[in-house]
Amino acid sequence: MPLISARRARAWPAALFLAALAALGGGAQAAVTCLLTVTPLSFGTYDPAWPTPTTGSASLGLSCRASQVTDPLSVPFRVSLGSGQQGSYAAQALRGNVSGTLNYQLFTPLGARWGDGSAGTSTVTGTVLLPVTLGTLGSAVLTVNGVVPAGQRVFAGTYSDTVTVTVEF
Q1: Secondary structure tally for the chain: helices H, strands E
Q2: Is 0.85 surpassed by the pTM of this model?
């Protein structure tokens, strides 16, 4: 149990849970099967007295397998992230088990705000290259970078949020 003083409070652990949702579209890729794996993003311990932001990262893994010789050799995809429980990209916040919130932002590997393409956010596109051998997995891995800005006044406790990951093929 963290100690709380008049000068500072520790909020720990701060975690972001990424919930997966994959949508496999029709067309030529209907016989290709894909699996999305997501690791939780943890910011670790946040201390309001620290002068620098607290950071964390999570991996999104996408594995696909062709089952027919007529399947394509690549699967293009687009990944978008939801805004979390606050419902706004402008006010993304981890909610505490006491009262209070801890603001955060999510970024693409190239440093843009990751979202669904609205409100100044970006989505990430890529391609899974499928091996020529049927049934063999092709994969792509993306990193979600998170930042909790420094200097936020929060109560000690556990803070979390849930963000939906949507993959479109």
Answers
A1: 0, 11
A2: no
